[in-house]
Design brief:
heterodimer; A: globular; B: two-stranded antiparallel sheet; about 5% strand
């Protein structure tokens, strides 16, 4: 009965996504609409990164092993709200004035460099594939844990992937927004239900805390191995910077599609309140110390606690909430990858052909991630590169949002390359960093290479401007006159 | 790092120019207010009530502290937003809305939904 309920829930999520009489017919309409998404629609899209499969599977697991160190997720997400308050309105303003559809458009246009645009598109699309797989595998794991059936897990992954492809292709960002609203309500409901189960079965929160403290007070001091103060400071800073500077390509459509900078600003000023909901999986993880067997895998903790404390129909609600938490980011990531490839990487001029190719790429990207997930291929190691690697775009974002761009595109490319290679070397060579995040360390070579190569450029090409005149905002009046519809992307 | 200018933009936007908006949103005062809870978050593990097991009303002090930082962030950003609106941000927002309305009117029917 439980697998049927969960599959029906997943189908309902897909149906919400395609619940529209009209299919999107252009790449710009599909990805950013008319750039007029109202406040609440934008809110749910912006909040997408706060409640994901990580909230369900990861956070409770970290709390189960490391106690209050799991609060680092609350920390970096809150910091990202502060940075986004200042940064995203400017990105949206540039996007509306100059017709961006993707993050790569932003870099290409601001630095007047096709090489930079294509580099960002390639790196961004590659790094997002393992992130997409994570969502689909996470969904399968949620269903498997809830039902105890590996068959139901594989089947649910296939059904959810097909539905994601269908609603993303059909409705684009509007469909994603509809599912995001449903997802957030389901996630909050699911977390409250899990917490209620813990309180009813184990005791109130003070009781749980007291019992865990009796086992080990180390759970409350951020002193567990690998989850100490160094881990906290470096991961909070680097992930906060990455998310705050909007370095994840799939987070750009909500920014570019918002009705105004004021909408983004007002949402960012309130959205940190969402992070309070993350205290629930952390407290559930602590309760797991009391009710679960030792060495329970971290990803199993929240749902295992739920199974210990809740009746079957409520487990279905939690699993459907978890499925929604996977399907919304999966849809956004698939959109992000397809836009970068079809719009920035493929040399296709015909808009209709490009739009069709875009749909094919959505299906290919989700299909690839599903295949990796079903085959249990270990591309998770690449995910280690995703956060640290994409954060290497942060210095370039900081330069590009200025009124005038004073750095050439090639030094920026070289800096990003140096930072990304550094992350890869530290990760795959197993270099010990004393707990400091590889992404934070790699910002050093990134900035040094950027600064030195820009200095060389200024010396060798003395007097030459850093960016071509068409990249200057001062020329926007003329550009706007020549482009009556500022909706098709900069590289179109 | 973040554009910091004001005044002339309001007039330029009011005249219907599509030239870039520029604001004093990231003024030093507003940045200082917004970054206060950020500093509080970063230094969390070094706080005496976090580095030793401490409990407030039965809850771990780290949890209470982080809840305070989340709420403090919201409060700080509300103060920043009000300050910005008071210092001319409201006029810039209105001008941006007018520009966007003009741009939307130029979009062909069926372009997007």
């Amino acid at each position: 009965m439980l697998p049927v309920l969960i599959i029906l829930g997943i189908v309902a999520i897909g149906a919400i996504g395609v619940w529209s009489r009209t299919r999107q017919t252009s790449l710009s309409g599909w990805s950013v609409g008319k750039r007029d998404l109202p406040r609440w629609t934008t809110w749910f899209l912006q909040a997408g990164e706060s409640l994901t499969t990580f909230s369900f599977l990861g956070l409770a697991g970290i709390a189960y092993g490391g106690g209050v160190a799991a609060l680092f997720a609350v920390g970096y997400l809150t910091i990202s709200c502060v940075l986004q308050y200042f940064i995203t309105p400017r990105q949206r303003q540039l996007g509306a004035n100059r017709g961006y559809l993707t993050m790569a458009d932003f870099f290409q246009d601001r630095f007047g460099s096709r090489t930079l645009g294509k580099t960002v598109a390639l790196v961004g699309a590659l790094f997002l594939i393992p992130y997409l797989q994570l969502q689909i595998t996470g969904l399968g794991l949620i269903v498997q844990l809830a039902t105890g059936s590996a068959d139901a897990s594989g089947f649910s992954m296939i059904v959810a992937s097909v539905l994601v492809v269908v609603f993303v292709i059909w409705a684009g960002i509007r469909g994603l927004a509809r599912v995001a609203v449903f997802k957030d309500f389901m996630m909050v409901a699911a977390l409250v239900i899990v917490l209620a189960g813990v309180i009813a079965s184990v005791g109130g929160i003070p009781t749980v805390v007291e019992k865990v403290n009796a086992i080990s007070s180390g759970y409350f001091t951020m002193s567990r191995p690998g989850l100490d103060a160094t881990f906290w400071v470096s991961s909070v800073i680097v992930t906060g910077l990455g998310a705050g500077f909007n370095t994840f390509p799939h987070l750009w459509p909500p920014t570019l599609a918002a009705k105004s900078g004021a909408v983004l600003r007002r949402n960012s000023s309130w959205i940190a309140i969402y992070q309070l909901s993350l205290f629930i999986p952390i407290l559930v993880g602590l309760a797991g110390i009391l009710v679960l067997k030792q060495k329970t895998p971290g990803n199993f903790v929240l749902l295992s606690v739920a199974q210990h404390t809740l009746p079957e129909p409520l487990i279905a609600v939690i699993a459907i909430g978890g499925a929604a938490a996977a399907m919304v980011p999966a849809g956004a990531i698939a959109m992000g990858i397809s836009m970068l490839v079809s719009h920035n990487l493929l040399p296709v001029k015909n808009p209709k052909l490009r739009f069709r190719l875009n749909h094919v790429i959505v299906a290919v990207a989700v299909g690839l991630a599903l295949a990796f997930g079903l085959a249990k291929s270990d591309i998770a190691a690449l995910l280690l590169l995703t956060y640290g690697g994409l954060t290497q775009f942060a210095p370039a974002v900081a330069i590009a949002i200025g009124r005038k761009v004073r750095v050439h595109g090639i030094p920026v490319v070289l800096g990003i390359a140096a930072g990304t290679i550094s992350v890869a070397i530290i990760t795959f060579a197993g270099i010990k960093t004393g707990g400091v995040d590889s992404g934070l360390i790699s910002l050093a070579p990134n900035l040094i290479v950027l600064a030195v190569s820009e200095l060389i450029r200024r010396t060798v090409f003395k007097g030459q401007p850093a960016v071509p005149s068409e990249a200057e905002e001062a020329n926007d009046d003329a550009l706007a006159a020549a482009r009556p519809v500022a909706a098709e992307g900069a590289s179109a | 790092m973040i554009p910091d200018a004001s005044g002339p933009d309001s007039a330029r936007l009011a005249s219907g120019s599509t030239a870039p908006l520029s604001t004093s949103l990231a003024s030093p005062k507003r940045l200082a207010i917004a970054l206060t809870p950020v500093v509080g978050i970063v230094v969390t593990p070094f706080l005496p009530f976090v580095s030793t097991p401490t409990f407030v009303f039965g809850l771990p002090a780290a949890v209470v502290w982080m809840a305070a930082m989340v709420i403090g962030t919201v409060v700080a950003l509300q103060i920043v937003e009000r300050s910005y609106q008071r210092d001319g941000g409201a006029a810039l927002d209105a001008a941006e809305a007018a520009l966007d309305a003009e741009r939307l009117a130029k979009l062909p029917e069926g372009e997007a939904h």
